[in-house]
Amino acid sequence: MVTLRTAFLLAVGTLVGFGAMLGGVEPWAVVTTILASVIVVVSIDLHLAVKPSLIKLRRAGDRTVRLGETATVELVVHNGDDSHGRLLVRDTWVPSAGASPFSHKVSLGSGERAALTTTLRATRRGDRPAVRVTIRSFGPMGLAFRQADQSPQWTLRVLPRFESRKYLPEKMAKLRQVEGLTAVRGRGQGTEFDTLREYVPGDDVRSIDWRATARRNDVMLRTWRPERSRRVVCVLDTGRTSAVRVGDEPRLDAAIDAALLLAAVAQEAGDQVDLLAADHQIRAAVSGVGGRNLLPRLVNALAPLHPDLVETDFEQIISEVLRRERKRSLVVIFTALEPGALGEGLLPILPKLVARHQVLVAAVHDPALQALATTPLDGADSAYSIAAGVRALAERRKISSALSRSGVDVLDCAADVFASQVTDAYLALKAAGRL
């Protein structure tokens, strides 16, 4: 293939040929000479260009990065030809990888290597693969080039932002208050014996230890603390309702952020955290992982999750939870308070789950509904908008009441405080001994 330099060379030849024709030279002879000369020169230049097949490529660099942060990947180019190479290398990634620069100019002698750095700032979670590398090899005069594609494999996994980690110090302080620094005065479900202390007015007399009182000649009281090694199951609905954008991100992203904060606090509390993400099929599952490996495993499992525009099969999800979790657990279902999805899919089978587990349904409140309901009345169009918003909010309250009557705790709050509120609900249940 030829470059613009070849066109410029033809233009110069045309001017020279035009002068020769004015001097009496035959036009056919001028055209033939010019074309033959250009073809010969271009052919020589093309022959001297390095063959792209002799250029060897390999990658090195970051494999993972958090959404919103920057990663770098190096493309190492090795000239395996005996001649000098003048190359234009275009490193192509999927658009959502945010790769720059688009191309690199490099000059390599025989056997030389060069490391070309591509900066990636992804705009979406998940796996962002490299597509191809296009190598354009120019001849010494820059009149012609050879071109070929290679595909050195590399995938950058973009992890969730986990912006809710800013709440961790606050939640850890609350956890210490719940677990150790302040004892639970009365015994309830989900509490275990902690220590003995002297009775003070206002304490629950049912917690008096009469044997210890007889030994010490003073009224002694048993204190209790929330049990450790309980189980928390995060169930993420990845069906069509999770694709609704709340603010700048899908509802699923808010659920992922909340699940990570909940898992971090529950792990610190000594509880076992499992994860299940599903719609009409299981998309991700993490179970039996503890310690420092928990959060990395959860983050990697959640990173490639994306909403699927299908109806969620809650019957399959509940059956899977019941099959996996034999012991009583806190099951947190991250979904949307939509009458169609929950009223027809979840409510009929919810008693099976509530009979064995403590259930919390957590949903992100869509501010667009409140905005519709509070639209200033100005003509027929605004009246329809207000009616639509009021009706949607009424249906959410109706489904929330139905869930509460079934023995389910319901959390419906804005996206900016969603993760914090979910973790607070967990801590409240733990403090009340309901886990």
Can you offer a commentary on this structure?
This protein has 435 residues and is of the alpha/beta class. The chain has 2 domains: 52-159, Immunoglobulin-like; 231-431, von Willebrand factor, type A domain (Rossmann fold). 37% of the residues lie in helices and 29% in strands. It has helices spanning 4-22, 27-48, 168-181, 210-216, 251-268, 294-302, 314-324, 339-345, 350-354, 367-373, 380-405, 415-431, and strands at residues 55-61, 64-66, 71-79, 85-93, 99-100, 103-108, 113-120, 126-138, 145-150, 155-159, 191-198, 220-226, 231-237, 245-246, 249-250, 272-278, 282-286, 330-335, 358-364, 409-413. Strands 2, 4, 6, 8, 9 and 10 form a 6-stranded mixed beta sheet that branches. Helix 3 runs parallel beside helix 5. The protein is elongated, with a radius of gyration of 34 Å.
Summarize the topology.
Layout (H helix, E strand, L loop, with lengths): L3 H19 L4 H22 L6 E7 L2 E3 L4 E9 L5 E9 L5 E2 L2 E6 L4 E8 L5 E13 L6 E6 L4 E5 L8 H14 L9 E8 L11 H7 L3 E7 L4 E7 L7 E2 L2 E2 H18 L3 E7 L3 E5 L7 H9 L11 H11 L5 E6 L3 H7 L4 H5 L3 E7 L2 H7 L6 H26 L3 E5 L1 H17 L4
Parallel strand pairs: 2-10, 13-16, 13-18, 18-19, 19-20
Antiparallel strand pairs: 1-3, 3-7, 4-6, 4-8, 5-7, 8-9, 8-10, 11-12, 14-15, 16-17
Helix pairs in contact: 1-2, 3-5, 3-12, 5-6, 5-12, 10-11
